[in-house]
Amino acid sequence: MEKNASTSSLNDLGPSGLDLTSAFFKPIHNSDPPLPSNRCTKISVVGVGNVGMAIAQTILTQDLADEIALVDAKPDKLRGEMLDLQHAAAFLPRTKITASVDYDVTAGSDLCIVTAGARQNPGESRLNLLQRNVALFRHIIPPLAKASPDSILLIVSNPVDVLTYVAWKLSGFPVNRVLGSGTNLDSSRFRFLIADHLDVNAQDVQAFIVGEHGDSSVALWSSISVGGIPVLSFLEKQQIAYEKQTLEDIHQTVVGSAYEVIGLKGYTSWAIGYSVANLARTILRDQRKIHPVTVLARGFYGVEGGDVFLSLPALLGRNGVVAVTNVHMTDEEAEKLQKSAKTILEMQSQLGL
Q1: Catalytic: 213?
Q2: What region holds the Lactate/malate dehydrogenase C-terminal domain (predicted)?
């Protein structure tokens, strides 16, 4: 694929690129001109690996965008993925799909989703991997921000908390328009495990994992409810004994879930695809739903010491992050959250941004 080339329409199929639309359709005489339509919704996905394509495919099937633009550094892979999606047009809602290695294809996006990232080499330190990803983001975020200055940036690349901070710094965007996928998926896994224990629908479970998307994440057991019933207070009132270790085991299962999937199939894709599409729906349709996502956490729940990004339950809408939810935390949970923030700040301090 040429650097500046993108494929957007296949209607020029006649000799010398003749537009066949006028040949197939006859205009209705004495009709009114078409009414001005609302501006189309456009989503750009940077990175067409397993995660990026799972996100794009889920967005397509859920009819969340009028146009999807794909960007990647590998032109053959990129064109192949674009064509594969275009060939499914007869089975999907009508969506324009474009692709290019040039970020101009993302111009006018409402939402830019970044999944691109360097893979960890055998024996490579976490810090060195992070520094390589920061170098990669220097080539991704500025052209994205230039092409779509009014868009919302949604970072999925890992480590997502630090890279969301990097994207905020490099984009120059206001803080409400830069967020990360954070613990939205971790919380879904958490809700699934609790629902599985209680044999109920996971949608009836309200539960959050907050903090780092990683080993120092915090499970907010004190605020968990099922069908509107606070779980721990209910158990105490009913004098039903439970062990804290049981709760911790469930949390550790959540933390290890991604590693288990990667160990079995080599990568994660479908769950993160649904998770990010869920965030896209809330944002672009202004649904004002609460999601645990990576946001600027300074000043919330006693988190201080710098501009640290980590996951908190946040109200999302068309302008990105509307507010941070004032969820109840015990002193122990707040202390763990502050410790998680310090872990992330230590990583950020070594970046020199």
Answers
A1: yes
A2: 183-346
